[in-house]
Amino acid sequence: MSGASMRGKSAIVGMATAGMGEAPGFSAMELLGQAAIAAVRDAGLKLQDIDGVFAATSSHAFPTMSVVEYLGLKPRFFDSTNVGGSSFELHLLQATLALEAGLCDAALVCYGSNQRTAGGKLVSMSEPQWHETPYGPRHPITAYALAASRHMAQYGTTREQLAEVALAARGWANLNPQAFARGPLTKEEVLSARMISDPLTRADCCLVTDGAAACVLVRADRAKDLSAKPVYFLGAGAANYHRSIVAMPDLTTTAAAESGPRALEMAKVGRDELDLVMLYDAFTINTILFLEDLGFCPKGEGGRFVEDGRIAPGGELAVNTNGGGLSCVHPGMYGLFLIAEAVAQIRGEAGERQIEGCELALCHGNGGTLSSQCTAILGSDATL
């Protein structure tokens, strides 16, 4: 089965989020369950119709087993591949493969976390501690600060350019009633915010929130018979060079340089055809690195690319229109929320932030500390 043969073979027919921001009193699994039930309902299906389950969480050692038990499912196929926040873009590919192979007929992809109200802090379990613990880093912030410092030294990227990413995210968040961080934000406020790990201030770092998301996929030939407007899987690609930041071959180049072209090739679309770009912005440097590595600008030009509101509302390129992990939501693993926003935009359900004529979206997930990278392309029926 070739990659090209997977183009348009599955579609997201149900999508939902739950507990966005703060959801006191709910466990991670309860929030996941709320999103899953709402996504199944959005698809016009019943829970008993779900026979494929794909899950990754930061709070369950065996996530699919926990999901199946909690929701009372009896799947024929299940997978709990966990490569960090990019897991869910990869799950879209895995679910499409399982559907096309006839291993399941309706696949649920789901995630939930109560990280904020459970008292969680911005930490990561993704680092091999024997590499870095002796140096006293603060995971994962120190790793991203290292990448930002190297990019600044090598290409002249400035803290003011990093701040442009945060300002753009807040601009989009102010158009999104579900965004957790809304309100005015100035460049001076970003630059003068408390330094967390030089050169990243508090305003350069993602939120710590609660939240859950889920989507339901079916084979494309079934999608049009269901109640929701289908959003088609067109392509995906993944790449991974390392786990620990100290083993990253080049701190200024991520594996998105490989995952992006693979996804675009499978989808048979060019970057200039994309209407929406959803990037995993756990830190402001992420957006700059991914814009470069995905080919939207040359290596080293990402800082200059985001200047003057280019990725903000009204700019040339619509990036992270929900407000991103910086201003909308970031409950530990953010990748499924990229997909949720892409689905909302392609369906035309994004309200005040809606991109006119949005037909093609790129979702790029990041796992670990710039470690696993997975890119997925979604489109409307007009793109088939």
From TrEMBL:
Organism of origin: Notoacmeibacter marinus
Cleaved signal peptide residues: none
Record domain Thiolase C-terminal: where: 237-379
One Pfam match: Thiolase_C_1
GO molecular function: acetyl-CoA C-acyltransferase activity
Protein name (Swiss-Prot/TrEMBL): Thiolase
InterPro entries per record: Thiolase (IPR002155), Thiolase-like (IPR016039), Thiolase_C_2 (IPR055140)
